[in-house]
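Example for tutorial group B:
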């Protein structure tokens, strides 16, 4: 089996439509070989099957291959601490208990 047939078996069509928010994989300013996801940006139009025209928040428009884009997922803002983070009031522990907690947290990191 040649490479194209194998690739075509496992390849999936990615669907992004006009108005979708996306992150764009771009090289950093200091190093061209180091890439970071930048965004959000908005898809303004599809060009062919694999190219998308993207508008950044600064107003700049560029065309990117779909492999350089991923759907942008906005974070849910939460006021409280995450469920796995313990919120501790120092006044509720004795000195021995505080030392034990400090020792355990040092071992974790």
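The residue assignment follows.
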């Amino acid at each position: 089996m040649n490479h194209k047939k194998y690739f075509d078996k496992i390849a999936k069509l990615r669907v992004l439509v006009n108005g979708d928010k996306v992150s764009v994989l771009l090289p950093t300013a200091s190093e061209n070989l180091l890439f970071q996801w930048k965004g959000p940006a908005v898809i303004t139009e599809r060009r062919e099957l694999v190219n998308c025209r993207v508008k950044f928040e600064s107003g700049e428009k560029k065309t990117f291959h779909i492999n350089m884009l991923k759907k942008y997922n906005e974070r849910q803002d939460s006021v409280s601490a995450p469920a796995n983070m313990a919120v501790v009031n120092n006044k509720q522990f004795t000195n021995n208990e505080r030392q034990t907690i400090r020792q355990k947290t040092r071992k974790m990191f």
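The chain has a mean pLDDT of 82. Compare this with the pattern of hydrophobic and polar residues in the output above.
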